[in-house]
Amino acid sequence: MKLIGSTTSPFARKVRVVLAEKKLDYQFVLEDVWASDEIQKINPLGKVPALVMEGGQDSITGSMFDSRVIVEYLDNLSPVGKLIPDKGRERAEVRTWEALADGVLDAGILVRLEKTWSGRSEPQRSAAWIERQMGKVHAGLAAMDQALADKSWCASNHFTLADIAVGCCLGWLSFRFPELAWQQQHANLARHLDKLSQRQSFQDTAPAL
């Protein structure tokens, strides 16, 4: 398999952590979606990550995209370290955690683009838009922190995709928004990220320029 992504994308990192935890072999191909349109041959939306499946071609028909789709596919490739429950309330809980963490990331990425995208001049940048999106970031962090009180893992009583999604979210916020200092207000999340950061899969995929 070939994973197209970047070392700064939290969604690509989520897939990379799953690949490591599932002990699956793959080739990691770096792609800068802001400097090249090559990704659109695989994902017409022009986003990473995208997975070219083993034996497939570098085209839409031989690939899949969106990190949530990819991680579910990968989790079913091997019985090793099952990360997503098969059905029922436990499955819904894990996927809800993932949706919450991904939603915080979506809002954070919109803030970063509003602040830094070269396609906007300074007068065009919207403080109201930034404030609205940051409100989602803060609300999401508060909800996750409260839900982690007196819990060892996000969902169930063991490591799941929920923990991976949350860890990648928090790692990206620390990487792109160090001034946010979210750890000071969310001790449960800070504790959880410290624990996740001890896993080799997280150490090997830490975001980097």
Sum up the structure in keywords.
Glutaredoxin; single chain; 2 domains; 209 residues; Glutathione-S-Trfase_C_sf; Glutathione S-transferase N-terminal domain-containing protein; alpha+beta; 4-stranded mixed beta sheet; 4 strands; Glutathione S-transferase Yfyf (Class Pi), Chain A, domain 2; 7 helices
Could you tell me the radius of gyration in angstroms?
Answer: 17 Å
The CATH level-2 architecture of the largest domain is identified as: Up-down Bundle
Note the beta-strand portion: 5-15%
- Write down the overall geometry: globular
- Topology pattern, helix = H, strand = E: EHEEEHHHHHH
Q: What's the CATH class label of the largest domain? A: Mainly Alpha
Low-confidence stretches: none
* Mean of all residue-level pLDDT scores: 95
What's the main sheet like? 4 strands, mixed
Count of discrete structural domains = 2
**In terms of structural class, how would the helical and strand content be classed?**
alpha+beta
Cα distance spanning the termini:
24 Å
| CATH topology annotation of the largest domain | Glutathione S-transferase Yfyf (Class Pi), Chain A, domain 2
Placed side by side, the strands forming the largest sheet appear as 2-1-3-4
Helix count equals: 7
Helix content: 40-55%
Total number of β-strand segments? 4
Domain GST N-terminal: 1-82
Pfam families: GST_C_2 (PF13410), GST_N_3 (PF13417)
Organism: Inhella proteolytica
Protein name: Glutathione S-transferase N-terminal domain-containing protein
